[in-house]
Amino acid sequence: MDIHNPDDQLASLKAWWQQYGTALIAGVAIGLLLLGGLNYWKQYRAERAEAASVLYEKLLDSLQQGRNDEAGKTAATLVADYAATPYAGKAALLAARLRFEEQDLAGARQQLEWAVENAREAAVQHSARIRLGHLLLELKEFDAALALTAVRDPGGFESEYAELKGDALLAKGDRDGARTAYQTALDKLPPQSPYRRLLAMKRDNLGPGAAP
Known about the structure:
This protein is mainly α. The chain has two domains: 47-139, Tetratricopeptide repeat domain (Serine Threonine Protein Phosphatase 5, Tetratricopeptide repeat), CATH 1.25.40; 142-207. It has nine helices and no strands. Helix 7 runs antiparallel to helix 8. It is elongated, with a radius of gyration of 29 Å. The model has no long low-confidence stretch (mean pLDDT 86).
């Protein structure tokens, strides 16, 4: 075959197209579908986040106006239908607070456990974990509360975890351990924090540590 001959070039092109044309078209089609799917998914997520944002603003407004029943329903919608957005975890925290104020400790616990497992933001997860720990102390589940303080990365909540550890140890009767934990909580707290006074009182109420 003479590649310089136009007829031979045309025949070669036809042969190539018969062998690879279908696969080429299929590949292009798949690529377009994937690109279109990716763009659709991005748009879908953006729309979901926007809808969740509107609901969260409604939730905050309801709380500010004292419409707690409405706030609870909105929070439930965010948790159930918008779990993949950051607003669901925040809504669960607020729902837990409402349940706690209503003395529904089981309901508050359920909301906090959901936030610990599902919240999209680390800060929300830590907040839920610490609040859950204090709730477990109320329920006298001291070991469970203490277990929540064993985190690999406290993410800036070092003082809060140390305080929770102190409270749990004190509830278990370990005064020396509690004193040490409260001191750690003080050490991790900013010098200008007004909360230092309360932590110092917790520590000092336990008296001096055992002599070495």
